[in-house]
Structure formats: structure tokens, C-alpha cells
Amino acid sequence: MTIPYTPTQYKLATDTSEQTIKDNSKHHCKILVAEDEEINYLYLEILLKDKINLDCIIIHEKNGEEAVSICNTQPEIDIALMDLKMPNMNGFEALKLIKEERPKLPIIAQTAFSSAEDIEKIKAAGFDDYISKPISEEALTAVLERTRKRKEKNTLK
């Protein structure tokens, strides 16, 4: 018995320096995905690039400390998708530190917990929106569209 295998076209970045792309002019946006689970990150990358066909650069960080650092050093990041349960620093702590430096950066919580109480905690913390895991293409598209509309509305003011 053989198992069919097709090599993936995605290269896993080993550190932030590999993820820095010099020519941003060809891309419409830069997205931070703060997610410690590699499979969840790869799934989001496929959704964003292959399913939604978003013309973007994706930066992957595996914990809250890295997410804060990259947001503070790369002001061209347009949006962050933030897992709430990460090592070293959780998504709530990272949100607070990022918003101190970049209050207008849209940060979307990614959570496996979506009870009314959990959602209220996410909103009260200051997240701009949330998306429940497992994340569907439709839900991700909707949250990105809501974020785009809010950003446009705030730009017009």
C-alpha cells in the first residue's frame, strides 16, 4: 500500500529575518499571523493566499513577544490575526502592548472559545474583531471585509 504524497510549495520561515521582504510595492497588504500551532498558521496562509486570493505578505510569529516586537519594528503591517493562547505571552497581553504603540492597528482575535462570555472578554480587551476556530474561508473573508470597511470609514473622518 502506498500513500500519495505531494510536496508542499510553502517554505517554513525559521526566523523573522527570512520573512522580511524588501519590495512591498507589489503587494496590497501586510498581515501578521501570531499563531503558535504551525498547522493552524499554514491553514491560514492557504486561506489568505490561495482561497481568498489576497495579494499580501504574511508574517508568522509563534508567540506574543514576537508579535509585539514585529509590530513595533514593521509599521507597514496592516492587520494582525492574533491567537489568544500562545507561549511566553498570550494574545491579550500582546494586544495591550501593541495597542500602546499602534492604537489604530486592527487586531483580530483567533479563538477556539466562542461563548458569549468569551466574546465579551475579547471585545472588552480591545480587539477589533474576532474569528472562531476552526476558521472557515467565509468567516475569514467576512472579518477581513469588516476590518477594511472600518479602516476606510476611519480614514474618511
Q: What is the structure about, briefly put?
A:
It contains six helices and five strands; from the N terminus they run H-E-H-E-H-E-H-E-H-E-H. By secondary structure, it is α/β, with parallel strands linked by helices.
Q: What labels describe this entry?
A:
five-stranded parallel β-sheet; 157 residues; Rossmann fold; 5 strands; alpha/beta
Instruction: State the CATH architecture.
Output: 3-Layer(aba) Sandwich
User: Measured on Cα atoms, how large is the radius of gyration?
Assistant: 16 Å
Order of helices and strands: HEHEHEHEHEH
Strand order in the largest sheet: 2-1-3-4-5
The named CATH superfamily: Response regulator
The dominant shape is: globular
Helicity level: 40-55%
Strand composition percent = 15-25%
Task: Write structural notes for this entry.
The chain is α/β, with parallel strands linked by helices and 157 residues long. It has a single domain (27-156), classed as Rossmann fold, CATH 3.40.50. The protein is built from 6 helices and 5 strands. It has helices at residues 16-19, 38-51, 64-73, 91-101, 116-125, 137-156; strands at residues 29-34, 56-61, 79-83, 107-111, 129-132. A 5-stranded parallel beta sheet has the order 2-1-3-4-5, sandwiched between helices. Helix 4 links the parallel strand 3 (79-83) and strand 4 (107-111). Helix 3 runs parallel beside helix 4. The longest helix has 20 residues, at 137-156. The radius of gyration is 16 Å and the shape is globular. Mean pLDDT is 86; it is low at 5-25.
Task: Set out the fold topology.
Blueprint: H1 16-19, E1 29-34, H2 38-51, E2 56-61, H3 64-73, E3 79-83, H4 91-101, E4 107-111, H5 116-125, E5 129-132, H6 137-156
Parallel strand pairs: 1-2, 1-3, 3-4, 4-5
Helix pairs in contact: 3-4
